[in-house]
Amino acid sequence: MIKAIDTNILLDILIPNANHVASSLKCLMTAEPDDEIIISSVVFAELGSQFLSYDDLIVFLNDTGIKMDTINKKALFEASVVWKSYTSKRRNALNCSSCGNSQQIICSSCGNISISGGNSPGFPLSRE
Questions:
Q1: For residue 77, what are the CA distances in angstroms to 52, 83, 120, 121, 123?
Q2: Taking burial as the number of CB atoms within 10 A of a residue's CB, which of 2, 11, 110, 122 is the most buried?
Q3: Residue 60 sits in the same domain as residue 96
Q4: pTM of whole model > 0.90?
Q5: Is residue 22 part of a domain?
């Protein structure tokens, strides 16, 4: 079986995060000996930020048996369709990753409820 993992799983282990290291290790440990663990090119790029050199990153991936998989354009488009469906159904709230509390983010300037991170454009949602 092929198992794709996200950057956060690896970063929780590489940069020990007391809140998530156990669950991230458990996630990796569920892989069977015949399973192939893969990362996408985006995860490769994000993961690279934690290594001093390209060679160090490659050694880590080789030592762990993690392979980088390339994704074709059709698969990426199909993922975008699923993502669009997911975002159209989500509620106008975010859940705290620590306690699960549901909360809304309301812009103090325009009053819209929005979901955003950092300086990236948000996804304004109606208050309905």
A1: 33, 10, 22, 21, 20
A2: 11
A3: no
A4: no
A5: yes
